[in-house]
Amino acid sequence: MSKKERALPFEVDRGFTAMPNAVSDYYTMHPLFTGAAERLYLFLLRKYNAKEGYAYPSYKKIREHTKINSDSTVSRSIQALEHLGLIRVEKVRLDNGNISNRYYFEKPIEDYEEFMRKFGDELPKKYRERPLEFDAIIEWF
Fold first, then answer.
1. pLDDT tens readout for residues 39-83
2. Which of 35, 52, 118, 123 has the greatest CB tally within 10 Å of its CB?
């Protein structure tokens, strides 16, 4: 594989987790998309099981791997990702009687205008204006 075809500019032995560019471009503007929510999102992506179609780590595994120290922060981060439409959570009763979460991924909004229509009112004022590069393109035309 040539360097041009690689996902990363260097070799790694332990793999990598890809996050859609739209998430880092748009969703990071939202106040609910905290550092903990981002770490959780990346961890859930990493634990996605293609055969099953979802991720299913326990809160304990989430805390261990993301370094999020409390169940309440994990819970708030899950709620944030659900609110933002990045995941859907299904509660399932296991054979042993315990309840487990299944985390299904939803496609992020990839269009800036659509993202603003959906979440613009929830964003801090500094993000509610068009990005500078957008205005520069309009001026160029």
1. 999 999 999 999 999 999 999 999 999 999 999 999 999 999 999
2. 123
Rounded Cα distance, 23 and 68, in Å: 20
Q: How far apart (Å, rounded) are the C-alpha atoms in residues 101 and 54?
A: 10
Cβ(46)–Cβ(18) under 8 Å?
no
| Contact between residue 40 and residue 84 where contact means Cβ atoms under 8 Å apart | no
Burial level of 133, CB count in 10 A (0-12/13-18/19+)?
exposed
Residue 107's nearest CA partner among 15, 33, 21 is 21
Q: What is the mean pLDDT of residues 16-43?
A: 96
Taking the complete model, does pTM exceed 0.90, yes or no? no
Question: In angstroms, rounded to a whole number, what is the distance separating the alpha carbons of residues 99 and 4?
Answer: 45
Residue 57 near residue 47 (C-beta atoms within 8 A): yes
